[in-house]
Amino acid sequence: MCIVAIAWQLFDELPLVLLSNRDEFFQRPTKSLHQWSDQPIYAGRDEKSGGTWLGIHQQPLAEAEAAGEHSTVYQQNGRWAAVLNFRDGVQANSQERSRGELVTHFLTSALSPMAFARQIDLQQYAGFNLIVGDAGQAVMVNNRGHAPTPLYAGLHVISNGQPEERWFKTERLRARLRQEVLPLIAEDPTPEYWQPAAFAVLSDSTLATATELPDTGIDKAIEHALSSIYIRTGEPRAKDGKNLLSNYGTRTQSILTLWRVLDAKPSTVDISACLISRET
């Protein structure tokens, strides 16, 4: 299970600010953020199914010499995507395709975000929330009744239920971002100025009370353990002292931004994508 917050078209220099926690079983083989050698994608990689939960389009073009050293020049087209599981008590089966391929297929596609969302065969996948976008449009879709819908300019927080559901973790993340992170970006969009605060908010492990839990069809003790923005492995414990989440928790925290970059020519604007992550 995961959580994603998207500040969309709120800042002139940063049309996209996306924060993400990826929650997963620790035994699931995963490669951390890197440039893929077989596809024009920069992302972490699920080595079991080959897809990813969050990534951008990027491909190396050529070696360039800078300051006496060789470095790789990359090409980007501003495409980005993120996918989350949908928690409704319905288990995925072996016949369903990997949800991570939805991200890779969009990043390597030439379709607009809306056109891509509309052509997905929804029934081929277990429950998902998918957000796909470029510099001009972002679209949210799931296969639990939410038709492809463009995101309006604003702050959107999505977890493992419907986008409009007000879970404890989504509302806590929304409130903390509005109070602690968005004002910093408005003051100074330089990453060093606001990203430490963003990672601190993503690391909030405050749990919901019993009355604040959603009903998603799973055991209430597990629901409680999953109710925080950041999920700590092994906490909380059941009444018998057994760890409820002995091999599951938040594994990766990421920040994705799109920057508007002024070109050498007056009034020419380019878009640069930046994705960073840290393993927890």
From TrEMBL:
Top-level taxon of origin: Bacteria
Matches recorded under InterPro entries: TANGO2 (IPR008551)
Any matching Pfam family: TANGO2
The protein's name: NRDE family protein
